[in-house]
């Protein structure tokens, strides 16, 4: 994945793995809990939620077990956002990877831009302007007056006086608002399980299976030119993101805390609304997205993951895998598809 603007387009749906060389794991501190703070309503009418209460080292959830005879596939379900001050350590994950013949990474879409270093430099101006709306329009000219009034209130609360974001496409403005709202709410969208997993993989050397569907771009210049003139149907993305920030911060904190502490009952009782579906649709349904094959790429990656899981259950005694929580909870998620194949599936603590 390069810094190309097309990479920014696909960033919402591509699920890139975190750094493959993790930092040295610090000594494990004791589990701590910060005091619960009461919610207040500010002068701008926005309710300020209680801070995330979990802190320090947390175990995370137990693992799902998919079984075929005496062959076991253990799955860790990941969640985003997570508590910003949490340090995740899971003895179960480390033990499973220590005994595993294979680790399967989650499915993702990969963009491979075939451009040399100097060509990328010449594209830098276009890359930097990729977030801007076509024809120089500002958000106030693109969204409805009611939506813009909501935006102004939320922007003042979470972003501040940055005027540059007013020139961005609604999709990218929504991303920026969400990122800053998470930061000020004690949550972290970039908090990752991968440093711990990569440490265990490096220590025990199981086979690693990277599951991805690759989109290759051989000449990025025409694509950037087309992108600069493309209008996206991203109003729903903008609206849904604002709604989630306005109404779902309490539930996001509860889900983050439940994941961190391994409270599966609470976690499963709080299904997460997935507002990024409308954001990804804005890209995949645009002409440029269809031409790249982006609409089908995510489904192809998921099919490849299922095939990798089937092969692992056939040949390995122990396999470890990682999936997004929505794949474990949704009726059409990958866990449901494994059940439909006839495998025995046990949830954590069963």
Automatic annotation (TrEMBL):
Q: Which InterPro entries match?
A: TraB/PrgY/GumN_fam
Q: Where is the signal peptide?
A: 1-19
What Pfam families does this protein's entry cite? TraB_PrgY_gumN
- List the keywords (alphabetical): Signal
Query: What is the protein name given in its UniProt record?
Result: TraB/GumN family protein
What is the species listed in this Swiss-Prot or TrEMBL entry?
Thermomonas carbonis
What does UniProt list as this organism's lineage? Bacteria, Pseudomonadati, Pseudomonadota, Gammaproteobacteria, Lysobacterales
């Amino acid at each position: 994945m390069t810094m190309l603007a097309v990479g920014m387009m696909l960033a919402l749906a591509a699920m890139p793995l975190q750094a493959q060389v993790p930092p040295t794991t610090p000594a494990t501190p004791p589990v701590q809990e910060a005091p619960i703070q009461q919610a207040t309503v500010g002068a701008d009418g926005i309710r300020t939620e209680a801070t995330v209460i979990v802190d320090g080292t947390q175990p995370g959830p137990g693992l799902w077990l998919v079984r075929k005879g005496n062959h076991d596939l253990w799955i860790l379900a990941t969640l985003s956002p997570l508590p910003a001050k949490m340090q995740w350590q899971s003895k179960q994950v480390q033990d499973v990877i220590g005994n595993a013949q294979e680790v399967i990474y989650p499915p993702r879409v990969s963009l491979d831009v075939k451009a040399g270093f100097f060509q990328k430099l010449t594209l830098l101006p276009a890359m930097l302007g990729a977030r801007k709306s076509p024809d120089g329009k500002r958000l106030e000219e693109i969204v409805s007056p009611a939506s813009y009034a909501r935006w102004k209130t939320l922007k003042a609360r979470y972003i501040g006086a940055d005027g540059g974001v007013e020139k961005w496409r609604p999709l990218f403005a929504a991303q920026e608002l969400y990122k800053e709202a998470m930061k000020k709410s004690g949550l972290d969208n970039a908090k990752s399980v991968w440093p711990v997993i990569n440490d265990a993989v490096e220590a025990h050397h199981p086979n690693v299976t990277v599951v991805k569907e690759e989109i290759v771009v051989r000449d990025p210049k025409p694509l950037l030119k087309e992108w600069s003139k493309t209008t996206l149907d991203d109003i729903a993305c903008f609206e849904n993101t604002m709604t989630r920030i306005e109404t779902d911060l309490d539930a996001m904190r509860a889900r983050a805390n439940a994941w961190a502490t391994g409270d599966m009952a609470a976690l499963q009782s709080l299904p997460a609304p997935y507002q990024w579906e409308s954001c990804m649709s804005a890209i995949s349904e645009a002409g440029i997205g269809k031409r790249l094959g982006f609409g089908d790429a995510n489904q192809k990656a998921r099919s490849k993951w299922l095939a990798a899981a089937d092969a692992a259950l056939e040949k390995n005694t122990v396999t470890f895998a990682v999936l997004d929580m929505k794949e474990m909870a949704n009726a059409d998620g990958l866990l449901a598809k494994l059940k439909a194949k006839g495998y025995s599936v046990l949830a954590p603590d069963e």
